[in-house]
Amino acid sequence: MLINFAFGIFLSLFAGFIFFISVSTSVQGRRSIEALSGCQCPACGAIYELQVARNARENFLARCGEARRAQPHMKLNFGHRWPVVCSYCGKRSSFDFYANKLG
Predict the structure, then answer these.
(1) Mean model confidence pLDDT for the chain
(2) What's the predicted TM-score (pTM) here?
(3) I need a surface site. Which of 4, 42, 47, 68 has the fewest CB within 10 A?
(4) Cα three-residue angle 53-57-62, rounded to 5 degrees
C-alpha cells in the first residue's frame, strides 16, 4: 500500500516536471522570436519582422532535425544561434537565442 502511494507521488512529480519543461521551452521560444522581431538589421537598419523571426527558428529546428535523423547514433551540438536573413537587404546575420540578441 505504501509502495503504491510512493509510486503515485513519484509519477505525479515526474509528470509535473515534464509539463514544466515543455511549457518553459515554448515560452523561451516565444520570447526569443519576439526579441528577434524587435532587432534591427546590422546592414540596413530595418527591423526584422515577426515572420522573419519565426522562419529563422523553424529553419534552425528543421536543420537540427535533419541532422539528427541523418546521424541518429551521434550526439550533435548545434550551438545557440539562428541564422537570420534580412527581408529588405538580404544580409545574413545570426541571432543568439540564449542571450536574445544579434551576434
Answers:
(1) 81
(2) 0.65
(3) 4
(4) 145
